[in-house]
Design brief:
DNA-binding; alpha/beta; 138 residues; transcription; disordered N terminus; globular; 38% helix; two-stranded antiparallel sheet; 7 strands
Length: 138
Amino acid sequence: MNQTDSPNRIEISGKTQPLTVAIVDDDPRVRELLKEEIQDEGHHVLSFESAETFLENSSLESIDLVLLDLMMPGMNGLECLQQLHQQACHVKLPRIVVVSALSDPSKQRQALEAGAESYVIKPDLFERLPTLLNGSTP
């Protein structure tokens, strides 16, 4: 692997292995649009309608990137992020990007302090998606 490659991708014979991306969002339209975009980039997608479903049904060892919605009914994205970090003593966490409709500096700070790699507002998500999939967080 050379230094410009994503640490989450494995290069075999000059080919980059696809990522497994978990989408955690209560909006089915957002999940479907993201799924299509990510699959078009050649990656695998796991889709979850709630933080609870994600925590109960995901194998973190097999996930490279989590796109975690901030505002969901039940457990919100920050609470989910805290739960994930409590599990971190048992498994290596994937990269986690918190996604929100709000451009709220306070929420952004909370997400980053809670261990998110990045905080992206939804209007910018599709533009930033290729960069996020390549392991960069500008």
